[in-house]
## 1
Amino acid sequence: MSLAFGALLPWLSGPREYAALRRAERLSLPALQRLQAERLARLLAQARDDVPYYREILPDADTIAADPLGTLLSLPILDKDTIRREGERLCAQRPRPGLRRNTSGGSTGEPATFYQDTAYRRWGRATKVLFDGWTGYRPGQRKAVLWAASRDLTAPRGTRRLAERLKNRTLLNAYRMDPETMDAHLEQLRAAPPRQLQIYAESGHELARHALRRGVRVPGIGSVLSSAGTLFPDMRETIEKAFDAPVFNRYGSREVGDIACECEHHRGLHVNPLTQYLEILDDDGRPTPPGTPGRVVVTSLTNHSMPLLRYAIGDLASWSGQTCDCGREWPLLEGVWGRVTDHIRGANGAVVFGGWLRQLLYPEDWIGQYQWVQHAADHIRLRLIPIDRAPQGEREQRLQARLAPEIREQLGAGTRLDIDRVNEIPPSPSGKHLHVISELQENRQ
């Protein structure tokens, strides 16, 4: 029954939307740009007519029709503070079918509220089916999901089991990543290897490290789809080694849905041009050149109930300067480098991205979980959990002696480093295990 049900998913998700995405894979760049401009023009015209906030700042209909992209780029960037302040004024006055409330992940502790309708969700589901296909997964095949969505994990047990059976899906709890739980996860994967294992990046990395430490092999997994959190190169390498399967990186958010995904050539992440218009900007609001990280600003082309025009999503990414051998002429991201809050700004003015802090710990294979926390410009703390129960002392002292000079050299001579062994590092409200947290107000989104 699950195979038959799963095979219908592209059509249950939205036959027109899925077919449009498949056609868009074969379009030339000029054709894609024309199609995207048409979709943008309709969105802007509707926002001007029906959304109080945009009615006040968008130009007349003729100007929008003549230059939709120029009109978009003339708008102020939308941030979460504006969304929380304006509230209902950002919503269409004529509600569309299936309107539902959603919230951002709340990694900073300050989630924002959004409204999304049936048309938006149909495009979102069609995009998931398309991206899944790039990984080699087909609807109805077995899938395992290392996830932390509370609405899935807290559903009544019978209801959850029925839903998982219909979807041919195994749900693994990513909130709890203690050794006993990870042993159970590995046993489930060994007993029924999925065609696709979908993971939170950090949780999947922890599970992969645990499998390698235990010497446990999990043969038969077709592919791994990393779909939340930042997937760094060393994490990809560890996950591929542990599960003997290719890793695909997918990028998206609750606010706008899936944005981009790797194809089978792994040359970068293709941005879906029918559902998103993406900008990557520097601190002065100027477009960054390929290879240079900047702030991601996204315009959702499918949410007409609450248009998000030039929304600063809070992530850092960079454009690729190359093309992909797959033939798709969709915009190509080189990579997504984490949240804006995933960087440390030193007292000397230096900005350090989370990847550098990760590299500092590469030699320390005794560290299980860790988290860097910046309390002040001159104060950073490393919280860690060892993989064993060895007494605290000598290893931490050696680590302090090695790291302190590097931290001071990079962030300023007066920077203080504290290293604390802890029993638990709780995930963020969205279920992600954050490796870097900055408490500086200027970094909060």
## 2
Amino acid sequence: MNDLVIRNASGILTGLKGPQERRTGDIRIRAGRIVSIGHVPEQAGDTVLDAKGGVITPGLVSTHHHLFQSMLKGIPTAINAPLEKWLRLVPNTYWRYLDEDTLQTAAQVGMVELLLSGCTTVVDHHYLFARSYQYDPAAVLFETAEKLGMRLVLARGGTTRTRKFDTDEIVPAPTETLDEMLKRVSDLVSRYHDPAPDSSRRIAIAPNTPTWGVTPDELRALAEGTRSMGIGLHTHLSETENYVKYCNEVYGMRPVQFVGEHGWLGPDVWFAHLVHLDASEIALLAQTQTGMAHCPQSNGRLGSGIAPAPALEQAGGRVSLAVDGAASNEACDMGAEMHTAWLLHCFVHGAGAIRCEDVVRWSSHEGARILGLPDIGTVAEGMVADLVVHDINHPRHAGLADPLIAPVASGAACVRHVLKAGKPVVYDGVVKGVDMPELMQHSRQVVKRLAQAVSA
């Protein structure tokens, strides 16, 4: 097998911290792994990928998403709604209309957008497994990821309790018993879960919320049951002030303390959002090495607030970045997410609160660590070659004195090539195997069909 050599890049952001944060030179890839960086002599049979005018980063890692929502962007009744109202008007209104074609189209659109913004690994928190569905959502998601060349962690959601909203018109979201949930997760683990350090398929347990979605006893049972399977634990936590208020009123403690009382803290746990934390919760998350999936654009779009990600990292905690669902973000672009994270924390905490390099690290190395994938997320010798060549030959990047910060500072992704384990999955800005005009046309048909179903 011939080696692949990436040549002529303007520089490399490795995803690491400290002296190895930036590197220069070329990259030799053999059998899907990086074997050398720097001066790379030519060898007979080399395949060369020209990165002239480009910046190399690791393949980005989005640690929280809802791919089904890619067909639910900009719902008119919910575009200006806060979280609780948005939940009623979007996922809880549309879930029963998600047939196999809708989910497959949404997953493909979402993953294509992620790839075109440099993301090679995604956690999909999918929580809709209704008995009325005539298809297997997990199979659809994994098959789509395999076709596109993405790594997928399926955070298998669900709930044992129905949450009542402010209208009786909403058909309750699907529920299942605790035993059913554990059995179905165990089945998914046997079918899909690969514990390898560079796995392309993982399963995690992910009840919708640990407070409303299951009882406290069930929460503990889920932690114990799934740890025996050797998989991670994930859910939403402390997304809004109402979340904190509810937990204090019902359980007499703040959310992080509550989940800690029931086995949901530790290096195998990561939470989406964590917007509303006090100092004691930050300290507890750091002490237990529990991860944060920071979703700044969705939290801003829904008016939920800004998570204290820099404070958690400064306390020794673990922070990753995530796009969340496109129905509460209207996009799933990791480049835009990185830019937003950088600006928001500088706005709140002052210029220099975080650097562009920090955001890249959150979006690659730290995300991979939180997911237990130590062989990806870093540009270094011996690592799996999940790599992105960001094209800086665009007017938005012109004039940058430091071209290496372009993927964050310039505000949008301009991706030329994306490699997964050394194989191009995006080449010259084109996702391999995807007929883009056909996908866009079909997505418009799906959106129209959903609108008609809801209004009928």
## 3
Amino acid sequence: MKNNYKVSNKLAVLFIIACLSVGRSQSKDEVQIKKMYDLALTEGKGYDWLNYLSNQIGGRLSGSVQAQQAVDYTKAQLDSLGVDKVWLQPVMVPKWVRGTPEFAYFETTPGSTTNVAICALGGSVATPSTGVKAKIIEVDGIEQLSTLGKDQIEGKIVFFNRPMDATQINTFTAYSGCVDQRYAGALEASKYGALGVIVRSMNLRLDIYPHTGSMSYGDQPESERIPAAAISTNGAELLSTSLKLNPDINFYFKQNCKLFKDVESYNVIAEIKGSEKPDEIIVVGGHLDSWDLGDGSHDDGAGCVQSMEVLNLFKKTGYKPKRTVRVVLFMNEENGLRGGNKYAEVAISKNEKHIFALESDSGGFTPRGFTFDSSQEDFEKVLTWKNLFKPYLVHYFEKGFAGADIGPLKKDGMVMAGLRPDSQRYFDHHHAENDTFEHVNRRELQLGAATMASLVYLVDSNGF
């Protein structure tokens, strides 16, 4: 009996020690995470960095002077943090220029015209110098082209008017449901003899802003390419209604955009070397380029400064990561993904071991959580950290798409994640003239930065 009693006592003591150990571990995590949230909200630098990027530099179209200015500025700011290493990674990027502002109108009867707001899609060819004027035909998507056939499309302008699905709570799902008409509409319509395409902006609300975005001609010969432009949602509604009243409307548009030869640009990279496992790399990043209509504050200046803030918060709290934590500001996500591909290419050539990558490219709105691209086993481990985020109202932990720029890094055994802010207002600003600094809330932006830093901290502390 005495022996049994001793064994029971020992087991009880071991159990209490284990519980205390777990308690200490949780408390340590909670303390570090709270430090980072507190500092992000009171002393964070991200909002000021974004102010400069947006208001002193502006839109950072790939290959532009402004994109180079953003490279120089962010490198200098990262240098000032006193991290272990900051460098530029050369990458060749496309240089597409919008030119003079676009112009469009529709004509109901000779001489009776109504102007509508349009913008060229990124990568589009120009119209002839005198513009394009022709009958216009409305379609609900690429699939309808084959139904109409060449007889009804040839010699006309195709108007793609499929709206984003307002019933989708996840607005990125609504976006993916109709973005094909923007990306491939010109290529497909040209096969039926269309002279040009006008595409409804990817926007859930009705407003006056046309939203640009990338489009592709694939390997189509330049001589067969037709011009493509986006029309504001207000303009699309007006044009659609007018076509129902008068199917013989003429549409006119003019744009003089141009694609030049590739130019050299850079990914901006900075890191804190790991103290215990320096060969294991954690990447956090966003894309430094933007479209040229606004100043790219939400897409993706926010993601860049939030990523930079991760290193700043580690330095300010005195946290020394076990693994190497690397920030990458990718160039050319918007119209080529050259930066993401180059980073992955170099990483593979150096046989670098990336264990985790986190991307912020969904705007600087209130953080809700993350999506994870991982094995089920790793995802189950991530879920054990979920309670640590509840005090900050961050609760969305789901499997799903992580991010475009980190995508090329993906390999078996690696965990990828994407910050998921509230998305309801994102497409009001996405790729449009109103993606500007005044539409970013400092507190929301800094909460996102702290949320990212907290996840990176947990991954670094625990590994996979």
## 4
Amino acid sequence: MATVVSYGAAEVVTGSCHLLELGSGTRILVDCGMFQGREEHRNFAPFDFDAESVDYLLVTHAHLDHVGRIPKLVKEGFSGTIVATDATFALAEVVMLDSAKIMKEDYQTHYKKARRRGTEGKVPQPLYEEKDVDAALALPKIMPAYDQSFELCKDVTVTYRNAGHILGSAFIEIRYKEGNEERTIVFSGDIGNDNDMVIPNLVPCKAADYLYVESTYGDRNHKGALESEEEFRSIITDTLENWGNIIIPSFAIERTQELLCILKEMHDKGELPECKIFLDSPMATRATAVYKEFAEELLSTECQTIKKRDGTVFDFKGLNYTLTVDESKAINDVNERAIIIAGSGMCNGGRILHHFKNRLWNPKNTVLFVGYQAVGTLGRRIVDGAKWIKIYHEDIRIKANIHTINGFSAHADQNGIIKWVKDIEDLQRIFLIHGEEDKQEVLRKVMGEKLHEKAHIVEPEEVIYLT
């Protein structure tokens, strides 16, 4: 009998990691992501399964909470085959190398401070180094095209379908034999909200026996795309006309590219007040280069039209890519009318902290959140109304205007999840993952009312028997 055990993204949003063991003994891991926010400490614990015994790793997409522990998995013995789309492999390399770099820098900083106290032996080593990323990327690969089924191994067929979430993202259909019967289990990964101007929409899932579905926004519905864009344009224009600056903590993958598209459109239509725009994130710059590489193959029809017209999807006059530390520091000399897009998206590190330190105290400035802020992150504290924060041991008073626009989310909202699940035929059981427990409770109730389906909230390391 097949079983699934979730070693991450169970009653929490991050750390996606689900182990499917088939009756034949084949062990398939779906995602191996990093925990973030208040669950971050869990990254340092050994895996609660034998990494060496895993035969295949199937990756839904390249966000850190879905790929961030792959090098750690390899360090602990995984030597099997990794399956992901070619765009996911390209983005995952960017994400994992950036993660290794940040962990190394954090370790060196903490070690230096600990030496002064004589406690350097207590500083945890980084989860992995760049060489471990290289080792992971050197493992055997399968890079499926969307909607092209392939045999993973005897009696197991896999199909990747466009999840409409980020470049290369997929939900995964796994068909396997259970005795004389064929069963299908689908892992949604993260599914898109159909409002993204950069990525094509989520495609339908036609049929499945079992569904593991994300529930990040299972308790709410997003604002409409047009309403969200209009709010974004209004905040940008009002702040610039008041001679202030806009600081946008943004995720390097997808959100940044979507914002660049909107700003480019404002610029091209003459709607953007005179200003300087900085993409102050080397990772986001590298990710944007990957998006450019796959523009004609995987981006939306709208983006392809823009590329044919201008020769570029994202670039326009006034946009500056700041790669070096000195270029980043030079932004401090721009006192007014600047738009600064910087990471990290949840404000737990990266260059965004320097911009907060220099600009949060000014009431003319605006901080604009355009993505999910996990519980326990600095971004969540600010969104929840913090008046003071500490950055680099200095207390900073928050006087800047704080705005949140959730309509840019790359995740499906409650209506989107319900709509997608409703059309799946032959569905026997629904399992909720990748969400905070209170949000999942809301979604479970709504599924019962609207779909007449009883969904199960997966607990951490709960063994689910696929009967």
